[in-house]
Write a structure and sequence with these properties.
heterodimer; A: Rossmann fold; 5-stranded parallel beta sheet; two-stranded antiparallel sheet; about 45% helix; B: about 325 residues; alpha/beta; Rossmann fold; 7-stranded mixed beta sheet; about 40% helix; thiamine pyrophosphate (chain A)
C-alpha cells in the first residue's frame, strides 16, 4: 500500500470519501486495539487475569468495516476477536478492561461472560455467546426486522472461517438471500480454527459459498484497510438499496495463538508466523498515512504515549473496580427478578 | 363465548395478538400460503400479508435464530416448528441463545420470543411425528414452557406467551387440535404463565398432569366417582417455572399423588414434581408418589398395536388412579 507518483494524485482515502481526520482515526483505533491486546497478554502472563483471546493481525479489516458502517444506527454482531471493531463503534478501553477483569460495571455482561463476548444495547452491539456462528441467524433476524419495519439500518456480523462450516452460517445466508435482507456477513479468514489450518477446514473458498445463496461474495485482502473499507461501503449501499446481503471474506492471519491456553508452535512454525507478521495491515497503513503526509514519527510517538496512558488508566480502573456481589448471579434469569433495579 | 376447536383457539390467539400489536409476526415452514401443515395459521397471511406470516426455508435453526434476532431488536416473533420432533436442530439456538440472552447481557438485552411446537402421538405419526420433547428443554433456566389442554387455555396461554418479556416454548398437542373443543371467549383474556389450575376438586387422590392426558384423567375421575373414589385434578399448565405452591396445595388436599404425562417416565417432568413433593411434604403423604408415563423407549412406533401400547388412554389412567386410591 505505497503511495507513488506526484502529490497531485488523489489519495486513496480521499477517493473513498474519507476525511484526513477519519483516515487518521482509523489508525488510532487499530493501534489502540493492538496495544490493548498486547496488554492483555501481559496481564494474563502476570497472573492478573485468567484468559485472553487475541485479535492481533485482524485489526485492519475490523476497523475498516466499522468505519464503512453507519455507527449511529446499524446493528453489530461481532465475534470474539473483534476488539478493534468494538472500539471503533464506541466501546471504550475502560469498558473492555472491566470485562477483562470480570467486574460488575462491565457493560458487556456485568462480569458474567468471558472477555471477547461483546454486548451493549446502547451501542447496538448485540450480545454474543461462545458456541460459534449462532450470531449469524441473529443478524439475519435483525435485518428481517429492518425490512419489516422499513428502517434504513443494516446488520453486520463477523465470524471466522472455521465458523463458516457451521449450519447456522449456511442456514443464515440462505434465509437472508431468499428474503434479500440488509445484512453483511464478514468472514475474518485468519487461516486457523484453533489448530486446524484452512486446507483441512475448507476445500473451496468461503466467498464463493455466496453464489449458492444467490448474492455476491467478495474476497478482499484483510490487510488492505482501504480496500476493505471500499468493499464494505459497497456492501452497505447494496443492503440499504434493498439489493440484499453480501458475503465478504477478508483474508488475514492469526498472528497470536488461538488463546492464552494454546501453544501454537505445536502445529505451526515460527517462520510461518513471522512471515505473516511482516504483512501486518496496520504497519502498511501507517506507511500509507506517512506517505500521504498525514503522519510522522513524532505523531506516532505522541499517539503511543496517549494510548499507553488510556490503557494504564483502564487497567487500573478495571483492576480496582469491584466484582459483582456473589449472589448477583441469581439475578436476570427472567424479567423482573432483579432485586435492585437492573437496567 | 364461542364453541371452537383447540386449533381454532390457537389461530385466534395469533390473529388477535397480530391485530393488537404490529410487531407480532409468525414465521415457519409452510405457515403462509398453505396456512401450516395442520392449518394452524390458515388465513393469517391473507389478513396480515407475506412479511408478517413468513414462509421460511426448511431450516429450523435459522427459524429460531432469526426469530431471536428479531426479538432482540424489539419484534414479537411467533416461530412455528412444524413438529416438535423437528425442533432439535434449533436446540442450540433455544438453549444457548434464547434462554441466556437476558442473563448473559446482565439484563441489557432480552428475547421476547414464542416458539410453538406440536407435541404428542396417537396420530399414527411414528417415531418422528409423535414425540414429547418437554424434558429436553425443561430444566433450562431462562426458558418458560407452557402446554395447554383446552381450547380456552390454548388461546389464553398463547396470548400470555406473546406478551411475555422472555422466551416461551408453547407446546400444543396435535391430538387435541380437532379432538378437543370448548368455550372460548372472544374477549381479550390471558391465562397467566406460572400458575397451575385446579380442574376438579376431590378428597381421595390427587392427579397432577398436563396436556392431552388431562382429558383421560377427567373422564376417568367421572367414572371413578361412581365407585366412590374422589379425584382432585391439577393441570400444571406451565411446565417451567413450575407452580410449586400450586403443586403442594393440590397434593396436601389428598395426601396421595399420581403424576401423568405422555413423555417418557425417566427424566420427565414428573420426576421433578415428585422431588418437590418429597422435599417439602414427604411425611404428609399417605402413599408412595406414583407416575404413569410413556414407556422408556426412544419414541412410539407407527404400527397400531405398538402405538396403542405407548399411548395413555382413559382405561390406563383410570386403572392407575384406582390403584392409588386403593393403596
Amino acid at each position: 500500500m505505497t503511495q507513488n507518483g506526484s502529490t497531485q494524485q488523489t489519495l486513496r482515502h480521499v477517493e473513498l470519501g474519507l476525511t484526513d481526520d477519519q483516515a487518521i482515526d482509523m489508525y488510532v483505533k487499530m493501534l489502540t486495539a493492538r496495544r490493548f491486546d498486547e496488554r492483555n497478554l501481559l496481564l494474563q502472563r502476570a497472573g492478573k487475569i485468567n484468559f485472553h483471546v487475541s485479535g492481533i493481525g485482524q485489526e485492519a479489516a475490523q476497523v475498516a468495516a466499522a468505519f464503512a458502517l453507519d455507527r449511529e444506527q446499524d446493528y453489530f454482531l461481532p465475534y470474539y476477536r473483534d476488539y478493534a471493531f468494538v472500539l471503533s463503534v464506541g466501546m471504550t478501553v475502560r469498558e473492555l478492561m472491566l470485562s477483562v477483569f470480570a467486574k460488575a460495571e462491565d457493560p458487556n455482561s456485568g462480569g458474567r461472560q468471558m472477555p471477547g463476548h461483546f454486548g451493549s444495547k446502547r451501542l447496538r452491539i448485540v450480545t454474543g455467546s461462545s458456541p460459534v456462528t449462532t450470531q449469524v441467524p441473529h443478524a439475519v433476524g435483525i435485518a428481517l426486522a429492518a425490512k419489516m419495519k422499513n428502517k434504513p439500518f443494516v446488520s453486520f456480523v463477523t465470524f471466522g472461517e472455521g465458523s463458516s462450516n457451521q449450519g447456522d452460517f449456511h442456514e443464515g445466508c440462505n434465509f437472508a438471500g431468499v428474503h434479500k435482507l440488509p445484512v453483511i456477513f464478514m468472514c475474518e479468514n485468519n487461516r486457523y480454527a484453533i489448530s486446524t489450518p484452512l486446507h483441512k477446514s475448507i476445500s473451496g473458498n468461503v466467498y464463493e459459498r455466496a453464489i449458492g445463496y444467490g448474492f455476491p461474495g467478495v474476497r478482499v485482502d484483510g490487510n488492505d484497510v482501504l480496500e476493505v473499507y471500499r468493499v464494505m461501503k459497497e456492501a452497505r449501499a447494496r443492503a440499504v438499496a434493498g439489493e440484499g446481503p453480501t458475503l465478504i471474506e477478508a483474508m488475514m492471519y492469526r498472528v497470536s495463538p488461538h488463546s492464552t491456553s494454546d501453544n501454537d508452535l505445536a502445529y505451526r512454525t515460527k517462520e510461518e508466523v513471522d512471515e505473516h507478521r511482516a504483512k501486518d495491515g496496520m504497519i502498511a497503513y501507517k506507511q500509507y498515512l506517512t506517505e500521504a503526509g498525514l503522519w510522522n514519527d513524532e505523531k506516532d510517538a505522541e499517539l503511543e504515549k496517549t494510548i499507553r496512558a488510556v490503557i494504564d488508566d483502564a487497567t487500573e480502573y478495571g483492576d480496582k473496580a469491584p466484582f459483582p456481589p456473589a449472589d448477583d448471579i441469581l439475578r436476570h434469569v427472567y424479567a423482573g427478578d432483579d432485586r435492585e433495579g437492573g437496567n | 363465548m364461542a364453541i371452537m376447536e383447540y386449533i381454532d383457539a390457537i389461530r385466534l390467539a395469533m390473529k388477535e395478538e397480530m391485530e393488537r400489536d404490529e410487531d407480532v409476526f409468525v414465521l415457519g415452514e409452510d405457515v403462509g400460503v398453505k396456512g401450516g401443515v395442520f392449518t394452524t395459521t390458515k388465513g393469517l397471511q391473507q389478513q396480515f400479508g407475506e412479511m408478517r406470516v413468513l414462509d421460511t426455508p426448511l431450516a429450523e435453526s435459522v427459524i429460531a435464530g432469526a426469530a431471536i434476532g428479531a426479538a432482540m431488536y424489539g419484534m414479537k416473533p411467533i416461530a412455528e416448528m412444524q413438529y416438535s420432533d423437528f425442533m432439535f436442530p434449533a436446540t442450540n439456538q433455544i438453549i444457548s441463545e434464547a434462554a441466556k440472552i437476558r442473563y448473559r447481557s446482565n439484563n441489557d438485552w432480552s428475547c421476547p420470543l414464542v416458539i410453538r411446537a406440536p407435541i404428542g402421538g396417537g396420530i399414527f405419526g411414528g417415531l418422528y411425528h409423535s414425540q414429547c420433547p418437554e424434558s429436553v428443554f425443561f430444566g433450562t433456566p431462562g426458558l418458560k414452557i407452557v402446554a395447554p389442554f383446552t381450547a380456552y387455555d390454548a388461546k389464553g396461554l398463547l396470548k400470555a406467551a406473546v406478551r411475555d418479556p422472555d422466551p416461551v416454548l408453547y407446546f400444543e398437542n396435535k391430538k387435541c387440535y380437532k379432538l378437543v373443543t370448548g368455550d372460548v371467549p372472544e374477549t381479550d383474556y390471558v391465562v397467566p404463565i406460572g400458575k397451575a389450575n385446579v380442574l376438579r376438586e376431590g378428597d381421595d387422590i390427587t392427579v397432577i398432569s398436563y396436556s392431552l392426558p388431562l382429558h383421560f384423567a377427567l373422564e376417568a375421575a367421572e367414572e371413578l366417582a361412581q365407585e366412590g373414589i374422589s379425584a382432585h385434578i391439577l393441570d400444571l399448565r406451565t411446565l417451567q417455572p413450575l407452580d410449586k405452591e400450586g403443586i403442594l396445595e393440590a397434593a396436601r388436599k389428598t395426601g396421595k399423588v399420581l403424576i401423568i404425562h405422555e413423555d417418557n417416565k425417566f427424566g420427565g417432568i414428573g420426576g421433578e414434581v415428585s422431588a418437590i413433593l418429597a422435599e417439602e411434604m414427604l411425611y404428609e403423604l399417605d402413599a408412595p408418589i406414583m407416575r404413569l408415563c410413556g414407556p422408556d423407549v426412544p419414541a412410539m412406533p407407527i404400527n397400531p398395536p405398538g402405538e396403542k401400547f405407548f399411548m395413555l388412554n382413559k382405561e390406563k389412567v383410570k386403572e392407575a388412579m384406582r390403584h392409588l386410591a386403593l393403596y
